């Protein structure tokens, strides 16, 4: 074995990754070659220096929390893939669902169209506000923002303070979607704006989940209100935000 | 093995098992968060980007959980983490390789003896030298020296043959050797000086 060949294998030799045959050859060479012996020592030193000096750290607690939240809220953000489970329901169940769906089809289609239309309108409202007026009342204090809606809306939207969780409130405005005035609360995460639209739920279904041009739109019902939040924030952080509002 | 079995059972239970599936996922993969975090942080050289990448990777992993067959959960997760990081770095090459990197170098000042202990100084030098490696090399070094993985495991995660892992590590170490000499300065064999100071 030449010096060149041996030298290229010294690193793998140190890692114990050479097969026995090759290893024996390298050992035989190193024994007789002082340059390679020195190189091998240098490699050991480098490896030790890296092991001791490489910066290792524990993941920040909030990252752990965020991920936990996001995983649990994943249902709200990700449309879960269902085919495998569908199959397990069996043909009979599928047929029953199909027959039921036929009867309900006109209603379902209408309801779906309506939910999508509202979702689309809210997204437009969000985009409009990006280029124009973001907030009518500028305040990070929910005790300023909440009373501001009095008299402007026929309802009083719940306003959550999530500054401590990294979603500071920026203010609010009155917007219009689905044929009614809605409250829009504006939160911020770094440079991302999050709009939360709130209006009385009645017995309507929340708008459809929506993803378009990097925006995500998530809706739910809680305490008699429908909530829709829209942002270009990443899925994981948006999910934690939704989770916080829902808790 | 056990993980795979439990997972299969919960799949059979149908829709209602979604929460259980997520709990199972958490139980298997959350313990690897520190490994995921360190890999992302050292690959991306920026903690903010690393946080985003790790979060995204966990959600991706949850989505692909049905493809997990109870093999090494750490390797399985780290493969997703590194793919997420590399995708991000590819999409933001300009920012990652230039602006942020320079910023990062400047942010870690050369150590002054008065203010920093020797071990801190050495650790900074190692960090700086690892940061200077190409991403492929950096990844191999982190998986080998920090996670102490075998060439086969590293090959599995990075999607290259073991021979490539071997040559990447060899070249990375040779670059580290010369980089550590430069940044630590001193006379004679500065790399050896690290070892002497340490012992």
Report what the structure shows.
- The complex is a heterodimer of chains A (247) and B (199).
- The longest helix of chain A is centred in the middle third of the chain and has 49 residues, at 83-131.
- With 247 residues, chain A is of the alpha+beta class.
- In chain A, 53% of the residues lie in helices and 19% in strands.
- Chain A has helices at residues 3-14, 20-32, 34-53, 61-77, 83-131, 142-148, 235-246, and strands at 137-138, 169-177, 180-189, 192-200, 210-212, 215-222, 225-231.
- The N and C termini of chain A lie far apart (68 Å).
- Chain B is mainly α and 199 residues long.
- Helix content of chain B is 77%, strand content 0%.
- Chain B has helices at residues 2-12, 18-29, 33-44, 47-63, 73-91, 93-107, 118-132, 135-146, 151-158, 162-184, 190-198.
- Chain B is globular and about 55 Å long.
- Classes of the chains: A alpha+beta (247), B mainly alpha (199).
- At the A-B interface, helix 1, helix 3, helix 4, helix 5 and helix 7 of A face helix 2, helix 3, helix 4, helix 7 and helix 8 of B.
Short recap of the structure:
The complex is a heterodimer of chains A (247) and B (199). By secondary structure, chain A is of the alpha+beta class.
List keywords for this structure.
heterodimer; A: 247 residues; 7 helices; 53% helix; B: 199 residues; mainly alpha; 77% helix; 0% strand; disordered C terminus
Question: What level of helicity do the residues of chain B show?
Answer: over 70%
Note the quaternary state here.
heterodimer
SSE succession of chain A: HHHHHEHEEEEEEH
Q: How many helices of chain B does DSSP assign?
A: 11
Global Rg of chain A: 30 Å
Tell the overall outline of chain B.
Answer: globular
Distance between the termini of chain B: 42 Å
- β-sheet strand percentage of chain A: 15-25%
- Which spans of chain B have pLDDT < 50 for at least 5 consecutive residues? 1-16, 98-109, 182-199
């Amino acid at each position: 074995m030449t010096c060149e060949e041996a030298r290229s294998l010294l690193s793998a030799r140190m890692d114990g990754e050479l097969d026995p045959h090759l290893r024996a050859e390298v050992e035989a060479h190193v024994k007789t070659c002082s340059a390679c012996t020195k190189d091998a020592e240098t490699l050991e030193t480098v490896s030790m220096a890296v092991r001791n000096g490489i910066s290792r750290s524990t993941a920040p607690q909030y990252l752990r929390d965020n991920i936990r939240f996001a995983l649990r809220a994943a249902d709200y953000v990700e449309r879960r893939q269902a085919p495998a489970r569908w199959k397990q329901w069996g043909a009979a169940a599928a047929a029953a669902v199909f027959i039921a769906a036929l009867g309900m089809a006109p209603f379902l289609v209408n309801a779906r169209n309506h939910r999508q239309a509202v979702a689309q309108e809210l997204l437009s409202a969000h985009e409009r506000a990006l280029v124009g007026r973001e907030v009518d009342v500028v305040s990070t204090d929910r005790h300023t923002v909440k009373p501001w809606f009095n008299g402007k809306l026929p309802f009083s939207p719940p306003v959550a303070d999530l500054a401590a969780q990294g979603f500071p409130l920026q203010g609010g405005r009155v917007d219009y979607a689905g044929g009614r005035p809605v409250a829009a609360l504006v939160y911020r995460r770094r440079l991302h704006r999050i709009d939360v639209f709130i209006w009385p739920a009645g017995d309507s279904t929340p708008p459809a989940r929506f993803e378009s041009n990097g925006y995500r739109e998530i809706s739910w019902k809680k305490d008699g209100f429908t909530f829709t939040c829209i942002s270009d924030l990443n899925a994981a952080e948006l999910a934690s935000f939704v989770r916080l509002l829902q808790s | 093995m056990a993980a795979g079995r439990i997972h299969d059972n919960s799949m059979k239970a149908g829709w209602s098992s979604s929460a259980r599936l997520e709990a199972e996922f958490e139980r298997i993969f959350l313990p690897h968060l520190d490994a995921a975090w360190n890999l992302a942080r050292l690959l991306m050289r920026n903690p903010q980007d690393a946080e985003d990448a790790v979060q995204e990777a966990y959600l991706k992993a949850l989505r692909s959980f049905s493809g997990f067959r109870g093999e090494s959960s750490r390797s399985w997760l780290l493969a997703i983490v590194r793919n997420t990081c590399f995708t991000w770095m590819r999409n933001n090459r300009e920012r990652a390789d230039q602006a942020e990197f320079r910023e990062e170098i400047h942010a870690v000042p050369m150590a002054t003896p008065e203010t920093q202990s020797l071990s801190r100084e050495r650790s900074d030098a190692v960090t700086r030298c690892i940061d200077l490696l190409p991403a492929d090399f950096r990844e191999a070094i982190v998986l080998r020296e920090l996670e102490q993985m075998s060439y086969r495991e590293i090959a599995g995660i990075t999607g290259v043959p073991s021979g490539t892992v071997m040559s990447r590590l060899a070249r990375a170490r040779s670059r580290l050797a010369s980089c550590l000499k430069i940044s630590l300065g001193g006379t004679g064999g500065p790399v050896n000086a690290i070892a002497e100071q340490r012992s």
